[in-house]
Amino acid sequence: MDFYPQGSVIENKAQLIEYLISGCKSPENFRLGAEQEWFLYKDSDYQPAFYDESEPCIKTLLEGMSNLGWQPIEENGNIVALSRGTCGITLEPGGQFEFVGSALQNAHQTKAEIQAFCTELGSLADKLSLSFLAIGHQPKHSRSEIPWMPKARYEVMKSYMPGRGDLGLDMMQRTCATQVTADFSDEADMVKKFRVGLALQPIVVTLFANSPFKDGQVGEYLSHRDAVWSDTDPDRCGYLPFVFQDGMGFERYVDWVLDAPMYFVIRNRKFIDASGLSFRDFMEGRLSVLPGQLPTLSDWADHLSTVFPQVRLKHFLELRGADSGDAVNRLPALIALWAGLLYDSQSLDAAWDRIQEWTVDERLELESNVARSGFATPFREGTVKDLAHWILQLSRDGLERRGICDESGATESLYLQPLQQVVDSGQTFAEALKQSFSTRWCKNMDIALPAMCKETFS
Predict the structure, then answer these.
(1) What does the alpha-carbon distance between residue 412 and residue 409 come to, in Å, rounded to a whole number?
(2) Does the pLDDT value for residue 99 go beyond 80?
(3) CA 326 – CA 303 distance, rounded (Å)
(4) Which of 17, 99, 266, 346 has the fewest CB atoms below 10 angstroms from its CB?
(5) What is the DSSP letter of 171?
(6) Cβ–Cβ under 8 Å, residues 198 and 240
(7) What pTM does this model have?
(8) Residue-wise burial string across 177-200, b where 16 or more C-beta atoms lie within 10 A, e elsewhere
(9) 104 and 32 Cβ atoms separated by less than 8 Å
(10) Cβ distance 277 to 288 under 8 Å?
(11) What is the DSSP string of 82-108?
C-alpha cells in the first residue's frame, strides 16, 4: 500500500523516493504478476480489427467481455479498459489486446488463471468472428493499415515519438510482449534483482524470441519486437548502464526518471500535452502548460509509466524482454523462470556472482546481437545457448528449493519444459515459425496468418 495518498502534492524529491520505497515487501508477501498481449484480426479477411468502424470490432468484443462480468472503464464515452476482481484488460495503441493478471504466489496459479482466461476469450472471439495472434511483431500489416485506439495518451505519444528514434510508432502499433512483475524486500534486494534481471534480459529475449516476420515476409531478426525497441526513444528506453554503477538505488532511478522528458499531465480526466517538458520544472511550479501548479504523486505515478527500459521500477520490478507467444504454456514458463531466479536466494546470489563480472561492453554486445543471432550469439568462450542452459538450471534449482507443488506433486519447474526444449534443440520459437513458413505455409503470409491465429487458443 502507498505511504501517501495519490493526490498528495509533491514538495521535494524525498517523496518521490519514498513512493518507490513503499513497494518493499517482506519475502512471505512476494507475488508475481503477468501481462500478455495479442494482435486482433477479423476472421473474414484477417485484416486488423478496428475499434468501431466496422463489425466485428474491438468495441463489440469489449462489450461482450462486460457481459461476462468485466467492469468497463471509459474514456470520452469509449470503453478502453476492463477490470474484474484483481485482473484487468487494456488496449495498446494499435489495438493490441492486453490481459493483466493478478499478483499471484506461484506459476501454478498463473497457469490456472491464464488458461481460464484464454478459454473465456477464445469462446467469445469465436462467436464474434474475431481471431487473436500471440506473436512479438505484426507479421503482415504496415502501420498505415493498423488502427489507433481512442485513448488520449496515445495521441500525445503518436505526435512525440517520430522525433525520438525511428521506430517508436512501430513499437506502439506493431509489437506485442509478455511481461512479469516481481517484488523486492528492501533497497539492496531491489538493486540486486534489478541488475540480475537487466543483465539476463538478452537471454530471455532469445528464449522467448517469437517475431521473425515483417511486412509479410521473413525478416532479418528472430525478435523484430526487440529490434524495434532498440530504436525507440533513447531518453526512456534501453538497458540503463547506470544500474550497474556504484550508487545505484531508489534515488538514482528517481533521478533518471526525472531526466526523462514528460508526455502528459492529467487534469479533470483530460490529458494535457506536456511532451518534452521537464518533471523537475513541474516540481518547481514552472511547467509551461500548468504554470504555478505543483505535481501530485498521481502525476509521478503517471510519469513512471512513461519510461520503458528493459526492466522498469515502480512498486515492483517489471521484466519486459519477452515476445508474446503461446499464453497457456509460455506465460507460466516466464513466471517460473523469474521465480526460480529472483525468489530463491541461492540462485539469485549465483546469478549475481556471475553477471557482475560482465563488462559494460559485453552486456551491450549481447543486447545488440541476440535479436538477430539468437542462441548462436557469441559470448566469451561460448554462446547464448550456454547462458540459456545456465539460467534454466539456476531457475530449476531455485524452484525445487521453493518446493511449491501442484495437486500432482510437481514443482513449478515443470513449466520450464518448453524453454528447455528450445535450448536443447538450439532452435528458437522464431526459427520454428520460419521453418513452418517455408514448408507447410508455402512462404505465403496469407496462408500463415490464419494458421497461426487458429493455433492461438487451440
Answers:
(1) 10
(2) yes
(3) 31
(4) 346
(5) H
(6) yes
(7) 0.96
(8) bbbbbbbbeebebbbbbbbbbbbb
(9) yes
(10) yes
(11) EEETTEEEEE-TTS-EEEE---BSSHH
Q: Which domains does the chain have, with CATH numbers?
A: 31-260+307-331+443-454 (3.30.590.20)
Cell 488463471, residue? Answer: 113
Quick: pLDDT tens for 353-391.
999 999 999 999 999 999 999 999 999 999 999 999 999
- Distance set, CA 348 to CA 167, 196, 339, 344 (Å): 34, 8, 10, 6
pLDDT on residue 72: 98
Strand 78-84 and strand 71-75: the pairing is antiparallel
CA atoms within 13 A on the CB side of 29: 9
- Point out which residues pair with 270 in neighbouring strands: 267
How do strand 308-309 and strand 311-313 relate by DSSP bridges?
A: unpaired
pLDDT tens, residue by residue, 260-278? 999 999 999 899 999 999 9
- Which pLDDT does position 106 carry in this prediction? 98
Residue owning grid cell 491465429 = 453
If 0-12 CB within 10 Å is exposed, 13-18 middle and 19+ buried, where does residue 440 land?
exposed
> CB 284: neighbour CB atoms within 10 A?
9
- Provide the pLDDT for residue 4: 41
* 6 pLDDT higher than 70: no
C-alpha to C-alpha distance for 222 and 235, rounded to whole angstroms: 25
Alpha carbon distance 147, 198 (integer Å)? 32
CB 31 within 8 A of CB 86: no
